[in-house]
Design goal:
This is Transposase. The chain is built from five helices and no strands. The chain is mainly alpha-helical. The longest helix has 44 residues, at 36-79. It starts with a helix and ends with a helix.
Length: 101
């Protein structure tokens, strides 16, 4: 198997699976014995997981960005002296969170 593919496969297992020393050795042996065709199949699976991870990361980033914008607006409204309870109702934030802003 191509050493670059072997390294990538081992990196994937090391990153996403917490293996014992014995399990890691078994996986390493299996990876070394893989044919090119088997390695390509594993690479497809790894690429699929990476793609899903990126998509989830983007979605989480969008949600966090929206939440940060809501916090900024809540802070400005709070600075203008509006009641905390009212700000919580408008933004959906917890009163304690608004008080920390």
């Amino acid at each position: 198997m191509d050493p670059a593919k072997q390294t990538l496969i081992m990196f994937f297992f090391d990153t996403y699976l917490q293996l014992s020393e014995e399990e890691e050795q078994k996986v390493l042996e299996e990876v070394r014995e893989m044919s090119a065709k088997e390695a390509d199949k594993v690479m497809e699976i790894i690429n699929s997981y990476e793609r899903r991870g990126r998509e989830l990361g983007k979605e989480e980033g969008k949600i966090e960005g929206k939440l940060e914008a809501i916090r900024m607006v809540a802070k400005r409204i709070n600075e203008k002296g509006r009641p905390t309870k009212e700000i919580a109702e408008m933004t959906g934030l917890e009163i304690k969170e608004i008080e920390r802003l």
